[in-house]
Design goal:
The chain is an alpha+beta fold. The protein is built from three helices and four strands. Strands 1-2-3-4 form a four-stranded antiparallel beta sheet. It is globular and about 40 Å long.
Amino acid sequence: MLDKETFHPLNYIKKEEYSGSMDGMRYLLKRVKSGGEDVIRVTVWPEPLNLLRTAENLKESIEVPMTEEGVEQAADWINERYETDKDKWQESLHKPWV
């Protein structure tokens, strides 16, 4: 689970993509344009493959504001997605590479 007290990648995301994983679930936070303004696109998908090699139907994304509050929303959503599909993430750890 991401700890919102120590999860503060906003300044990093302004320049680079921020990625990580936890127990079978990978995530990516990326700055994108939406409606003319910068937002953070948050994407989760199962291991073992990287984002580009993972089938689109296995990815889930949301967009949040490019603010500290948006980062908190991202952490909450990532944690919620992890808890909701914990079995799916754990199962992905044991799948062979495709």
